[in-house]
Amino acid sequence: RHWLEAIAAYGHRYTDDPVRVRVLKGVIDGLLLQGLLTDTPPTAAEFEAVLRHVLL
Predict the structure, then answer these.
(1) I need a surface site. Which of 23, 30, 31, 40 has the fewest CB within 10 A?
(2) 10-residue averages of pLDDT along the chain (56 residues)
(3) According to the lineage, what is the superkingdom (predicted)?
């Protein structure tokens, strides 16, 4: 739960849209899960591109 609160706090620095913050939490969890479960985790550049798309 604290992890999701930290993500939400980060998201609120960029947007006040609660739906966008919820999407951000799901996206970050998904990217990290992909990193744990696959042989090809997302690169820093891919992670940054996704965050920019969700937040900006």
Answers:
(1) 40
(2) 92 96 96 93 94 92
(3) Bacteria
Residue 11: the pLDDT is: 95
CB 24 within 8 A of CB 7: yes
CA distances from 25 to 39, 51, 52, 56 (A): 23, 10, 14, 15
pTM above 0.90, yes or no: no
Q: How far apart are the C-alpha atoms of 41 and 33, rounded to whole Å?
A: 9
